[in-house]
Amino acid sequence: MENVLALADIGSAWLVMALVVFLRIGTAILFLPGFGERSVPQRVRLALAVAFTIIVTPTVGVTGGAELPLSLVPVLAAETLVGAVLGLSIRMMIFILQIAGSIAAQSTSLAQIFGGASTEPLPAFGHVLVVAGLALAMLAGLHIRLTEAFIGSYQWFPVGAGFRSADLAEFWTAKVSGAFSLAFTFSAPFVVAAFIYNLALGAINRAMPQLMVVLVGAPAITATGLAMLAILSPLMLELWRDALDAVLAAPLRATL
């Protein structure tokens, strides 16, 4: 009976630790690329969260399993917050592709073509980039990198450690500004091409006012935009994958 009681105490301790880990991972799963998409059923998300919890919990019990306080409410709240920040930090990489695709589509007058092709109202450029980025991330072993990120997050924030409001505000300010900067970098060739197109269109209009330059130039900018997407998207996705690897290596770091 003494051995049974000892095993029961050990089992209950591991169950509590698994619950704490599940809160961080389950909250992060809601926002993660690929696993947290709207098209993924909720039961699949729950199964993924349980699977990640089974893998991560033993490492937390060895490396980060500090003594839990008697009141678990602050710990549960802190773990939920850390999981949300962790998931949104990685999700920011998908937002970069969406923003870059929207800027490129608006610049080349292709913002409304196939705009409803996905569960989110994205232009065609953004939809293509997001689907290609998710496929590339999955082929590169996203599930393995996410497991490493979950385990590494306990080195940055052990069980029960939360964020200070000032640190959280500084973190998101740097993260969002870096995301917009990277997204504009990806879409910069399309913005430059649109600027040259509008400049040439204005010069032609001044030279020949009777010519309907908009009707003549619309096919040109459309063809140019599609050709640039076909040529530049491999390079954009390669640079995006490198940035994703850097984020997965340190998801709670402010800079991209």
Following the backbone from N to C, one meets helices and strands in this order, namely HHHHHHH
Shape: elongated
Using only C-alpha atoms, the radius of gyration works out to 24 Å
Stretches where pLDDT is under 50 for at least 5 consecutive residues are 62-66, 113-119
The end-to-end distance, rounded to whole angstroms, is: 55 Å
Number of domains: 1
Mean pLDDT: 80
Determine the fraction of residues in helical runs and give it as a percent range: over 70%
Estimated share of beta-strand residues: under 5%
Helical/strand content category: mainly alpha
Task: Characterize the main sheet.
Answer: none
DSSP, total strands: 0
What's the total helix number? 7
Explain what you see:
There is one protein chain. The chain is an all-alpha fold. It has one domain (2-249). The protein is built from seven helices and no strands. The chain has helices spanning 2-29, 42-63, 73-107, 124-139, 142-156, 165-207, 213-249. The termini are far apart. The model is unreliable at 62-66 and 113-119 (pLDDT under 50).
Describe the structure using short key phrases.
256 residues, mainly alpha, 7 helices, 77% helix, 0% strand, elongated
Element layout with pairings:
Blueprint: H1 2-29, H2 42-63, H3 73-107, H4 124-139, H5 142-156, H6 165-207, H7 213-249
Helix pairs in contact: 1-2, 1-3, 2-5, 3-4, 3-6, 3-7, 4-7, 6-7
Task: Give a summary of the structure in a few sentences.
This protein has 256 residues and is mainly α.
